[in-house]
Amino acid sequence: MPETAAKTRDDLFAFLDGLGIAYKTVDHAPVFTVAESVALRDEIPGGHTKNLFIKDKKDRYFLLTVEENAEVDLKQVHGLIGGSGRVSFGRAEKLMDYLGVAPGAVTAFGAINDTAGNVTFVLDADLMREEIVNCHPLSNDATTSIASSDLIRFMEATGHKPLVLKVTS
């Protein structure tokens, strides 16, 4: 269990404000899957994300953030991200412990809660070519738009050096 309570959406926004990072948030009904969020595309421009919380054979955790329609070969991705052996999905308990979010609300913004550095963040190179990237702000009832370069700046400010790699086919 984390020693401190998970940060909230308001904590996230205060952190971004403190960094001088511009963002825009649209509130909407909770969405749990990429398919459910498709209706938001016209309202929210930019690259929309899918997040895979995975672990390798040595129990090292990774969060892959990719474009919502991209495919990730889970049998091969360990070789790209430096994992040990094939990867599998991480348990919901670890997701909450490390990133402070529940399944359905997984987001790169979870880096703000990973104060112990338990997770390696991987941003797909194709997604990062988008000017704007859209992520849940620690809950799945809103979408926050941020410049892709500012997403990297945010992660670095949380103590993470994200890997920007081509992990999709």
Task: Show the helix and strand layout.
Blueprint: H1 9-19, E1 23-27, H2 34-37, E2 47-55, E3 61-67, H3 77-81, E4 88-89, H4 92-99, E5 119-124, H5 125-128, E6 132-135, E7 142-147, H6 148-157, E8 163-165
Parallel strand pairs: 2-6, 3-5, 5-8
Antiparallel strand pairs: 1-7, 2-3, 2-4, 6-7
Summarize the model shown.
With 169 residues, the protein is α/β, with parallel strands linked by helices. It is built from six helices and eight strands. A hairpin with a 6-residue loop joins strand 6 and strand 7 (142-147).
What report would you give on this structure?
The chain is α/β, with parallel strands linked by helices and 169 residues long. It has six helices and eight strands. The chain has helices at residues 9-19, 34-37, 77-81, 92-99, 125-128, 148-157, and strands at residues 23-27, 47-55, 61-67, 88-89, 119-124, 132-135, 142-147, 163-165. Strands 1, 2, 3, 4, 5, 6, 7 and 8 form an eight-stranded mixed beta sheet that branches. The longest helix has 11 residues, at 9-19. It is globular and about 40 Å long. It starts with 8 loop residues before the first helix and ends with a strand.
